[in-house]
Each structure stands twice: as C-alpha cells, then as structure tokens.
Amino acid sequence: MENLFVNMASGMRSLLASAGLPDTATDFILMFLKLGAILVYILISALWLVYMERKVSAYMQCRIGPNRVGPLGLLQTTADIGKLISKEIIIPRCADKKLFLLGPILIFMPPLAVFAVAPFGKDMVAIDMNIGVYYFLAVASLSTVIVWMSGWASNNKYSLIGGMRVVAQMVSYEMPLILSIVGVIILTGTLNMSEIIRAQENVWFIFLQPLGFLIYLIAGVAETNRAPFDLVEGESEIICGPFTEYSGMGFAMFFLAEYANVVLVSVMATTLFLGGWHAPFGLTFIPSWIWFLLKVYVMIFLFMWFRWTYPRVRVDQLMEFGWKVLVPLSIANIFVTGIGKYLYQTIRW
Amino acid sequence: MSEWVGVALFMVVGIVFGAGGLLTSFLIHPRSKNRFKLETYECGLPTQGASWVQFKTQYFTYALMFVIFDVEVIYLYPWAVSFENLGFAGLIKMFIFIFILVLGLWYAWKEGALEWR
To answer: What is the pTM for the complete model shown?
Structure first.
C-alpha cells in the first residue's frame, strides 16, 4: 500500500521503456499521467468538498443539509454540476466580451500549476522543484489578477467593487503569508517541498513555529477568499462580487477554482507546518499518502468551522489587521526564529 | 526533461481545461432569445450610469507599502535558505536590513498611511 502509486509510476515507466520509446517521450507521457491523476483528484475533491461544506454548515446550524439526491444526498453536487453545464452562458451586452470569457478560462490555471509541486506522499511529487515554496507564492497570487480582470470586464458596479476588494485583500494578506513562511525556511534551509517535509521527521514545525502557523492560517483563509474574509463575494453587500454576471459553466469554473484553492492552501499548511506525510505516534502501517490527505481534510474542516464561527470583517478592518497586527507579528517571528536558530547552532557546537 | 517543461504542461492543461469546459457548455446549452436577458444585473433594477469610471482606490498607500515589502522578500528568502552558512555576521546584517524596513513601516504608520480614509 505504501508504495502503491510509486510502483505504478515505475511500472508504467518500464513498460514504456520496453516499448522502445526514447527517454524524453517516456518522461513526457509520465508527466502527463501524473497531471491527469492530479486533475482527477482536484475535480473529485472539489465535488465532494461542496457536499462537505453544505453538510458541515447544515449540522452547525442544526439542519440536515442535502439529503434528496442519492443516498444521504451524496450525488447532490454531481447533479449540480450537470445542471450548471446545461445552463446557458450569458454574456451581458455591456460587458467586455473577450476579457469576460477569458476570466473563467484562465482561473483554473494557477491552482493546477501549483499542485505540480505538492508532495502527496513519500516520493509522490509530480515535479520535485528546488524552489517549490517560491513557485507556490509566485503562481498562487496570479488568481487575484484574473478575478480582478473578470470583475472589471463584467461592467457591473458590484463586480467592480468586488474586483477592487480582491486586490485590497491581496495587498493586505500576501505579505503576512510570505513572511510567515520565512521562519520555516530558516529552520530547514531549503525551498524544496520534499526536503521541508523530511526535516520534520522528529518534530512538526507547528510546534517550533506556532506563531508562524497562526499567521499562515489567517492569511490562508484570506487568500482563499472565504469567510470571515469573504468580502470579495459578500452576498449581502455586493450580490456575488466579481462573479455576479457569470452563469452556467463560467460560474462553475470560478467555484471549482475556489475549492481547488482551499485544497491548495491546506496542502501547503500540511507541508510546511503539519509534518506532511509523516505519521504521528509511530503509526507507520498506514501509508504516507493517507496521512497526508487526512491532515489536508482536517485543515479544510477547520476552514469550514471558521466560516460559521466568525462574522465577516469590514474592508478597512481587514487592511488594518493585516498591516498593523499580522505584518509586525510575522517580522517579530522572523527575528525570534533567526536568533533561536543561531543560539541553537552555537550551543550545539 | 527539464522541470520547466512539466510546469508549462501544467499551465497549458489548466487553460485548456477551462476553455474545454466552456466549449462543452457552449455546444450543449439551450439558447433563448430575450431582450432583457443581456441586461447588466444589478439587483434587477435598470442600470444607472457607467461602471467603467475612475475608481478611487482608498488603499493605494497600502499598495505602495506592499510593493516595497514584496521587493524586500526577494532578499529575505535567499538569506533564509543559506542561514546556516552565513553565521553571526549574516544574522546581524539581515537584522539591520529588516530594521530599516520596520523603520519605514513605523514612519508610514505615524504619517497615517495605514489609515482608511
């Protein structure tokens, strides 16, 4: 079980090599298969996360939630997707048509591209890049531009305000997010995801970097535009923000990308702070990739819990909290981590 | 194979996936003619005025701060990676660097750049 996927990959590789293909072609086909596996994983988990979201929120409000379609309502989101595909894509007369359509086409690209460096288990990473963390930070923030672009292209006042709020959110939360990770980098001395996980074999970084984890968590919720930081699509204020004018598949794409982002932020939290695929309490008989996914879903449950616990913040509170609380705290975290690591090095020598 | 070919593959497939989803929907979705359907949706009321106006971004001072700090991070990450090799001198140098930035943050704070007006 432990090496199930690794063995599948190496089996496929030897099969292709025995078929007489050159090395480059083999690599390319294998990369394509990995990409397909990741894509299927994202789609399936987005599908069931919508269901999980609705069930969790229902039980937190003493309701039952979806229970009509399929056993326990399990097929509800599948039916929703079928409905969304068969709905007409309406392009408003006043909208900038090219940019309006470009939004949903591009929105899924950043999360999928970042999943390339996500280590799902021992030796289970599509591209083992030596600047993985940097790549995550660089590509993940591209979503902001795309959402802002669709907000502008809709030619709708609510969409415009929503788009501007996306930028405001990014400006105030990107910095704490980036600075909170620096502590982990100081401890490991590498930007490679797999190396960072290997460094957590004895102690998870959540215990060495509790403040960094907290800042990452808050900034991560803001990064995914979820409550309490869902100003971007605050339903009671600006209808649906930048997605107001989208219908059918266009809307479904934004929805899908949002859940892919939730999974992505949880994957990064697991990698950087929760020990990745390392098993706690020596329970190594359970495969590493199951541990990884378990931790990811615990993080996602935490995000859903946040959503029904805190009310939405105001936009000026959001920016003040980001710059006056989180940025100084994360800089202090870097100071403390740097001094601590230096002292630890000196004493050990 | 270079790892950047893999990254390019991921990005291309991400875009193709979005385009393919929209295209599939375009092929099968119903089409109805309606004069009011293509109106801009703003709470169902008739639209008043244009949306493409000069928008006053209240947070442009924040955005300036963001750019400054974003550039700072470019220096911070390589320092963090080679922390072990730099020793005490590297630690002090970086702390001076961060201290100057914190001074800038403090000045912006004092001057009211971090207030929502």
So the answer is: 0.89
